[in-house]
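Sequence dictates fold. Below is an illustrative record:

_____
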Amino acid sequence: MLLGNFLIGLREGLEAALVVSILIAYLVKSGHRRALTPVWAGIGLAVVLAVGFGIALSAASSEMQFKTQELFGGVLSIIAVGLVTWMVFWMRRTARFMKAELEGKLEGAVGVGPVALATVAFLAVGREGLETALFLWTNISNSSGAPPSRSLERSSAWPSPSCSATCCTGAG
């Protein structure tokens, strides 16, 4: 499970880093250094959104009954598979033109103002963050059969507070 989560984080992180580096390199090359602040603000908001989405997934699933959790996990797994499949086809079609497309959107956003710059960065990084949160949540919940919040509780190496010393040591 750890290797899978690592690979998910690495892949999505590299995609986000690629997009951010294209945005920043273009702004620096074109002499729009003042526009870096809104871009970083958009990136920060996207990270907050992704973390909040992950927390919301865990909180929502921890309050559900078992059958509802299974349905919720199954639907999100199907959505995750759909996103990966769509992403493969989308990357295959647009990989060669991604830089030009991002630079075109960014040039238009520079003319509009700082909110547009923040929005471009937010949307570019936010998509990757939401995918990461969804994929990690699905991977963790499917590997243990419980939502991530309960999976972490179940995998703890420490005995529960209600556990007596004899049940954990095997004595008695």
